Amino acid sequence: VCPYVLITPNATRRNQLQQIAKKELDDLERWKEEHRPGPIKLAPQRLGGNKSEAQARQKQQMMLMQSKYQQKHKREEYVNAKKAAEEAKILKQKAIQREKAERLEVKKRKEEVQRKEIFLEDQYYKTNELLNRLDLGLPKSDSCQIANRGPESTAWTRSHTYKQALREDENRRLEEMKQEQRRKAELMEFKQKQEEEARTRAHQNEQRSTFCYILRVNNAFLDRLQNKTQPNSINQPGYSG
Fold first, then answer.
1. How many CA atoms lie within 13 A of 70 on its CB side?
2. Which InterPro entries match (predicted)?
3. What phi and psi, each to the nearest 5 degrees, are found at residue 215?
4. pLDDT band with cut points at 50, 70 and 90 for residue 29
């Protein structure tokens, strides 16, 4: 069996706590009585509008119709603006891709021209080297007598004529390549100018069509509004339908 200690209650302490609690409750009730709100006094006034119920209903219906038209017009404007933005984005991407393709094509053409020039130059040097090897041991044209031309002089003359023909052919091909590049550059510039004019015309046509569409929507809205506000305008003289 566990031992325990019995403590007798303190009656004086308990009475003090009860008195304190009673005093606090009394103070709370007295504060509530002092701060109780008084009666509400309002001046009499007339409630409601200065229009009849039918007029209020008609005005409410008119505002509802206008709000519907406005919301529909806003939705159409949002759709058109979104569509125009998407088309502009697509056109921009196409223009970027076109410019990249044109730059790549120009780069390829330049590389091809450089390769051709290097090849022709290398061919020219190789041909000269071969002809110089063939010319070894042959007399010069100044030391040769015209009256006593032998087989060696004839060979040197043929080689000299052949080299000169090669040089002329090389110069002619280079000139043709330059002219071809010049014509391609002029054609590309003309093509870019035409594309720029076409894009400008397309943009102007798109702006004009958008303006015409908005004008038609506004005119249709005004016509419907006028027909609803003036239902007897059909029977008036001069109505065109």
1. 6
2. EPSTI1
3. -65, -40
4. very high
